[in-house]
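Note to self: keep these together.
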Amino acid sequence: MSQVLTLVAAVFAGLGVAGTAYFVMSLWTAERYIRQRPPANSGFTPPVSILKSLKGLDPHMYAAFRSHCLLEHREYEVLFGVHDLEEPALSLVEKLQSEFPQHKLRVVHCPQVLGQNGKVSTLAQMLPAAKYEHVIINDSDILVAPDYLDRVLAPLATSGVGMVTTLYRALPGKTLGSRLEALGIATDFAGGVLLARTLEGGVRFGLGATIATSKTVLRQIGGLEPLADYLADDYELGARIAAAGNRIELADTVVETALPDYSFRDFWGHQMRWARTVKDRRPAQYLGLVVTFGLPWALLAVMAGPSWWWTWLVLLAAAIGRVVSAWVVGKRILNDPRVVRDLWLVPVRDFVGLAVWLVSYADNTVEWRGLRFKLRKGKLQEL
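Structure:
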């Protein structure tokens, strides 16, 4: 029995060491990104159309809408696309139009259903109504800073750049599930994006928090219509733009998204949808996520061999690496004020993340907007 426990502890400790190495790499890529951030303002300020697909109400939605009317940019418009003219979010758009009558704020009715992804279906129908060559697509709950447009558009002034996307932080609700998801975005997701950017020689995907591009680039990849059945439309759009020979850059700005008061069941379902989407689109990289759970592996090593000094050493190294990398990414890059407050939840977040990773291999079904789908090569197939 002792030999079995030693073997188990050694395996867990080995994964803990690998996790510590991952945290060190995350720190390195984060510091590298800080040093190599693109210029905040290149003087490139073309007129731009902002496209938002509306479906339901999000927390702090009006504040997010309002932030798009306080932008320091010489000329832009905001288009709100709806499939149903009874969409409840339209009341907030009307309130916005009343508060900012001088702004170009338009509602676009998008009655067609082009695929399982209603957001893409709406965006594809909105695009012809956009007045300007440059377009920005962002989610309806995204809160932005006044200099958002100038910072997002700046990289597009460089030849060869076809798309710009942004990192984001989350404003959690009051529930544990909401806080755990916000902590994961700040301390896991953002660091993973930066590491992928370094290891892959650039960004090869988009993030729904912001996608800035042009109509010319969208025509180059066949438009938005071919994405209407894809769950991860932001990832797929970026992947296609990159595959067409365009560079994708991260803008020197961070936006904020508001999370609902998830029940734990809703939180689990959301995490599982993310996990199975990544597993479906990037299976090799997803398998490699086993090393990102360095802290849980190290804790399991101590539980298997509490009397062996080396298990405690691995735990100490993993804990320091995890906390420092979480602080650097969460505070220095995302400027998330809640990271320090919720650092004590990191072990809980990591064990839940490990459980999600393991369970995600059970099948390829996801829940989205109250329906269950099968994922097949990124596409949604209703059950």
